[in-house]
Amino acid sequence: MTTGITMPGKETEVPRLIPVAKWDQYHPWPSPQSIRNRLHAAKGGKDPEFLECIVKVGGRVLIDEAKFFNWIELTSETNR
3-14 as b/e, with b when 16 or more CB fall inside 10 Å? Predict the structure, then answer.
């Protein structure tokens, strides 16, 4: 999470939301197409926990970066 929005006497944690189309500008893996494929599978009932990483704003699909990497960690632990 990024700390950045402040109010007098307060500091608020703000999640970094990355558009799926621009994911590869921030991270080399996975590709935006892989994320879209995973999103489609999650909507179909396979791995619905992935949907917790998704934030929709209007027509844009954003990935909550922190939740995504937490999901990766949880998924890799259960597949060991």
Answer: eeeeeeeeeeee
Q: 55: exposed, middle or buried (C-beta count within 10 Å: 0-12, 13-18, 19+)?
A: middle
What parts of the chain have a pLDDT lower than 50? Answer: none
Q: How are strands ordered across the β-sheet holding 60-64?
A: 17-19, 60-64, 54-57
Name the residue ranges covered by the structural domains of the chain: 16-78
Q: Which of 2, 37, 33 is nearest to 17 (CA)?
A: 2
CA 67, CA 52: separation in Å to the nearest integer? 7
